[in-house]
Amino acid sequence: MARIIVITSGKGGVGKTTTAAALSMGLAQRGKRTVVIDFDVGLRNLDLIMGCERRVVYDFINVINGEANLNQALIRDKRCDSLYVLPASQTRDKDALTREGVERVLNDLGDNYDFIVCDSPAGIEHGAYMAMYFADDAIVVTNPEVSSVRDSDRMLGILSSRSKRAEESMEPIREYLLLTRYDPMRVANGEMLSVDDVQEILSLKLLGVVPESKAVLNASNAGIPVILDRESDAGQAYGDMVSRYLGDDVPHRFLHPEKKGLLSRIFKG
Amino acid sequence: MAAKSTSSTNASDGAGTFELKAASFTLPIIRLLDSDIETVASRLGAKVEKAPDFFRNTPVVIDLSDLPRDRAPIALPQLVGLLRGYGMIPFGVRGANAEQTAAAEALELAILRESYVRRTKSVGELAAETELEPDPVTAPKTAQAPEKAQPSAETTQPRAAGQSGFMLITKPVRSGQRIYAAGGDLSIIAPVSSGAELMADGNIHVYGPLRGRALAGMSGNMEARIFCHDLQAELISIAGHYRVSEGIPNELRGVPVQIFLDQKILRIEKL
């Protein structure tokens, strides 16, 4: 049975879809059979970030409504054989996601995959509930600023009370914190919450810290999950995150401003 | 400053601008059994004609919980207009589904907590939730902030509430969660986030940072106290005597304190 991971945040624009793309690609590259599902019905983005927008024929809602079968809707990633994308519908609204329908699709996928990554929409509306309801693990994506931290906290409350695991008194969802758009320079100047500040408020296991990086936008524009950009700090941070998720003990990087050497200071100005 | 928002009964504390008290009102509830607005209008009209004075300027609560779910939804704006036409002042709904809640919010009606009694599982839970039943309507007993007017759906069900009402929480209490220990003490050995709300009829103990709201002595027990390891609360209250974050002196923040009532004045003391 596949493990279901929800990428959630409450707040929008913090990097959920970027994280979903990076995590699913990272898991697939490590040989795990992975499918990533876009739950943002009506505002689909994942296909763009994954670079498969031109191959979308059927979508998640078609499968829920029985208008297409899973194999017709799943898009195999061209870069990695064990990764599939299930895109959201751009024309329907979130009410088309029925709990029974979502459960059926997840169950059908469960037999054939190791991991199902659910990319949650922002907010705490129906779509977000459906994305997290069946989850085994949750990665809460948070930016180091107060409103994002508060929304994440709210989301954690919902995860612990309104998920299937909570309602059926099963073992609770495993919750992880992923801090994104982290700028060590601004933290050092006291302009941004530090990792410790955020952890103190949320008291969660820290899965990773992804630095603010130009590579993320470039990767999104190009439709290449940033984890494939191994030169970039963000790509490496996501790589570390995937390793940590799979149980490796990897030290955190990119927490402190880079110390510039004398030479680079002279030459780079 | 120190006694600014402590006791509503203390006229001498210099506040003078307003008092915040808890009070209960018995109000008529219009429980709708038919979603056809025409039928409702004619029946109600007949009723009002018999005793027009009784309904004039009477605040009413609209109860939607017994409406047949399979029928067409009731047109809330028309219904409110109808009631106003008969001189009533509809001010809130209860038992609304998501759609009706949105409609009611658009009409600036209060969303009153749906009765929990009918989906109660145990005696402990019954005790824990009947307090929050809005019938008769309880005026802001907890100095509720506007964003809490709509009860959050994920009010934490009492996990460890035994017959005694004592409750122990071991996991972080998150923003938006509410915990109520009916008839007893509430102990928390985890952080309480800002935006979370703790309520107990007895004492509240928090062995971690308290960043949310804590309301002890909910049923009027003036002997109740709040003990916490690290006071960063948004609001603290004992038996309705409350103080907001602004009124907490800096030297008492972030340190272990106890909070209690002394001659109906809320006092915070270092431990």
Automatic annotation (TrEMBL), chain A:
Gene Ontology annotations for the cellular component aspect, listed alphabetically: cytoplasmic side of plasma membrane; cytosol
One record GO biological process: division septum assembly
Keyword Nucleotide-binding: yes
UniProt keyword annotations, A-Z: ATP-binding, Cell cycle, Cell division, Nucleotide-binding, Septation
Keyword Nucleotide-binding: yes
Matches recorded under CDD domains: MinD (cd02036)
UniProt-recorded Gene Ontology molecular function terms: ATP binding; ATP hydrolysis activity
Residues the record lists as binding ATP: 11-18
Domain AAA: 3-158
Gene3D superfamilies listed in its UniProt record: P-loop containing nucleotide triphosphate hydrolases (3.40.50.300)
Family annotation (InterPro entries): AAA_dom (IPR025669), MinD (IPR010223), MinD_FleN (IPR025501), P-loop_NTPase (IPR027417), ParA/MinD_ATPase (IPR050625)
Alphabetized PANTHER family for the sequence: SEPTUM SITE-DETERMINING PROTEIN MIND HOMOLOG, CHLOROPLASTIC, SEPTUM SITE-DETERMINING PROTEIN MIND HOMOLOG, CHLOROPLASTIC-RELATED
Similarity remark: Belongs to the ParA family. MinD subfamily.
Functional description taken from the UniProt entry: ATPase required for the correct placement of the division site. Cell division inhibitors MinC and MinD act in concert to form an inhibitor capable of blocking formation of the polar Z ring septums. Rapidly oscillates between the poles of the cell to destabilize FtsZ filaments that have formed before they mature into polar Z rings.
Quaternary organization: Interacts with MinC and FtsZ.
Name of the protein: Septum site-determining protein MinD
Species annotation: Allochromatium humboldtianum
Automatic annotation (TrEMBL), chain B:
Domain Septum formation inhibitor MinC N-terminal: residue ranges: 18-90
SUPFAM superfamilies, A to Z: Cell-division inhibitor MinC, C-terminal domain (SSF63848)
Keyword set includes Cell membrane: no
Ranges for region Disordered: 127-161
Keyword Cell cycle applies: yes
Highest rank taxon of the organism: Bacteria
Keywords: Cell cycle, Cell division, Septation
Domain Septum formation inhibitor MinC C-terminal span(s) in chain numbering: 169-268
InterPro entries: CAP/MinC_C, MinC, MinC_C_sf, MinC_N, Septum_form_inhib_MinC_C
A Gene Ontology biological process term: cell morphogenesis
Role played: Cell division inhibitor that blocks the formation of polar Z ring septums. Rapidly oscillates between the poles of the cell to destabilize FtsZ filaments that have formed before they mature into polar Z rings. Prevents FtsZ polymerization.
Family that this chain belongs to: Belongs to the MinC family.
Cross-referenced NCBIfam families: minC (TIGR01222)
Quaternary structure annotation from Swiss-Prot or TrEMBL: Interacts with MinD and FtsZ.
Name this polypeptide is given: Probable septum site-determining protein MinC
Protein source organism: Allochromatium humboldtianum
